[in-house]
Amino acid sequence: xxxxxxxxxxxxxxxxxxxxxxxxxxxxxxxxxxxxxxxxxxxxxxxxxxxxxxxxxxxxxxxxxxxxxxxxxxxxxxxxxxxxxxxxxxxxxxxxxxxxxxxxxxxxxxxxxxxxxxxxxxxxxxxxxxxxxxxxxxxxxxxxxxxxxxxxxxxxxxxxxxxxxxxxxxxxxxxxxxxxxxxxxxxxxxxxxxxxxxxxxxxxxxxxxxxxxxxxxxxxxxxxxxxxxxxxxxxxxxxxxxxxxxxxxxxxxxxxxxxxxxxxxxxxx
Amino acid sequence: xxxxxxxxxxxxxxxxxxxxxxxxxxxxxxxxxxxxxxxxxxxxxxxxxxxxxxxxxxxxxxxxxxxxxxxxxxxxxxxxxxxxxxxxxxxxxxxxxxxxxxxxxxxxxxxxxxxxxxxxxxxxxxxxxxxxxxxxxxxxxxxxxxxxxxxxxxxxxxxxxxxxxxxxxxxxxxxxxxxxxxxxxxxxxxxxxxxxxxxxxxxxxxxxxxxxxxxxxxxxxxxxxxxxxxxxxxxxxxxxxxxxxxxxxxxxxxxxxxxxxxxxxxxxxxxxxxxxxxxxxxxxxxxxxxxxxxxxxxxx
Lengths: 269, 300
Known about the structure:
The complex is a heterodimer of chains A (269) and B (300).
Chain A: H1 17-41, H2 58-64, H3 67-100, H4 106-118, H5 121-135, H6 141-165, H7 169-177, H8 182-193, H9 195-211, H10 214-219, H11 227-237, H12 242-268
Helix pairs in contact in A: 1-12, 2-12, 3-6, 3-9, 4-6, 6-9, 7-8
Chain B: H1 15-31, H2 34-54, H3 66-70, H4 74-107, H5 110-125, H6 128-139, H7 144-151, H8 165-189, H9 193-201, H10 206-234, H11 238-243, H12 251-260, H13 265-296
Helix pairs in contact in B: 2-13, 4-5, 4-8, 4-10, 5-8, 6-8, 8-10, 9-10, 10-13, 12-13
């Protein structure tokens, strides 16, 4: 087994053992911290241990019985939901417009719309904080949604753009020549064809908003604090095991999302 | 919005009408990007212009270079050096750990690669805050890692692994690795395996084939992965703020402190403008380099 060639250049598996070992170590490094927090969150003691000496649900109870934690979770869900809708609509319109009508302005428009992905978040955070202060948008849901939508637009555009790349434009032309208006042709022919890409763009937009910390840190507070803002303050000031329970739920959520994404991809193929 | 071809039959279809209808439709289509553009302008461009403008004035409102001169103070210079040191070190570690992973993934069958990719994508999808918290718990004084090392007798007393540079770097490597591995894997996947077989046929040893064929062809992908990682590190706030425990002064934490602790908008704006300029220069420089590399790798 170890002496069978692994590549077309006749390297054997035995000669590549070091490579397998390195990759296994890196994979372990990547995944273990994400997973280990789950068993630790069931620990009964104030100090998180692994393996936990005795099991309990007290940190989950601490989360679900705290009005502050629940309030911030609701704020996060509300902001992420609204961001998903707004970013998907704006990103899809922009992506479709740029796909259909190319001009000398297309590259610069695309560049501008991709900017939020490349600019350091700390800069976006203080810039938004500064401007919002003039318009009374700090600590409002509206302010958070607008900022998060800006951050999410590039991800929607990339996802929808990928969908449009593999879409056959003749289908839409056929619909138009049969008398469909541009809007009808888009809604009944193009959109159903790129729905998987739109859906993955929505997923990205939701996660971008729900997981966003730095901008929320500056522009949300009090009753409109997001979950991540409250977690950040909690982690910085004390290591409260309630955060472990929340983190475990978030890791579980990302595993579910990952499985859902794989499932959608398989169904699509 | 109707095109000429939608008009009632019998209408004279002439070239001018078609042309103007097409132009009108193009205008509407180009307008579709407008709402998104307005939002980006309001949330990004206006604040940037405003802060850049603000950075040119001193506290009394007079035009001055004071805010930029302040950046030369030892405290700020120190934080720039720390930032570049951390970004460089994290990027280097990501290359050392990420290259073998991307290489192996690119050599495996599609099915096996898909399974192993889950190990890279799961952390990628997990919130950075959650991962940073996990490292904090693992690395703290009475955390899991110190416990294990103590019970195995490797160390006599707990190591200070967190609230310092070590913790910051461990946490940042964990966040950045997928950003290096995923684009690198995509570019390695595009290297034609026939080229390696050809090299072997021409008498190259496996390591020669790797060094003289695979490595140069993977350079453009590696360069863009490095650029992405390095630039993300330069402006990274979350992990240094939490795992550095206030002891690792990076560019981003200085900006945040200038605003939230000292309400010093002059310093914050000058720091931000400088950070953006450096980010842009690095991106531009790497693009030039990547172009040169792909040219030398035989792709015009």
